[in-house]
Amino acid sequence: MTIQLRQICLVxxxxxxxxxxxxxxxGINSCYVDPGVGKFGLENNLMPIGRNFLEVVAPIxxxxxxxxxxxxxxxxxxxxxxxxxxTLPEHQRLRQCALDNGVRVAHEHTSDQWTLTQLHPGDxxxxxxxxxxxxxxxxxxxxxxxxxxxWEHQVKQDVTLDFIGVELQGDxxxxxxxxxxxxxxxxxxHDADSNPTIAFNNxxxxxxxxxxxxxxxxxxxxxxxxxREHILRExxxxxxxxxxxxxxxxxxxxxxxxx
Length: 259
Description:
This protein is an alpha+beta fold. The protein has six helices and 15 strands.
């Protein structure tokens, strides 16, 4: 069984300024706008990071799930951990694991090509977890949320290479990790700082205590970088600089790791 982090979704009050910051600071391109999110009262923009994707959504009407999430977490921030599962039977098995652990399905869709199960963030205590399966079973190619194919020419990796980690924060990190471990059927380990972790195929989920006053949520992303100086220079110009190892964009901590 393989789980690939294929997409991270952030939520923002205002879309264009956040997209501008992300493109300038991280040196990435936009590749797709999905009109389908309009049915949820949202607009969005997607950008490839390596062969994976970063999405930002923003409410365009009142009383949306995204808007309520912004209110609950007092501003822009992390929203969804979106994964690709290697086979349909494994997708269905993990869906059942979540149900068996009291996690509700918030939304799902099935077609011959694509199967999606979105698990409820309230039950998961930190963020949406989305399980997706594509019939082509290719972790580097077709991805339905960006229209399948046609995004490949927008991949740009001279500044930012790829995701390598996701930081989920909660009041009880060990209990939070245990819940996510049971839903993904993956073991809990610990990093050098004794934080509980879960390893996906391509990233490590790290579970930490809330220290920013914003409550449980997706608080940070680790990225492998090829041009740290570009990121730091642009971050300083846009008032997103925190340290030589961290910038803050869209209410999210971006931890810079050498490639």
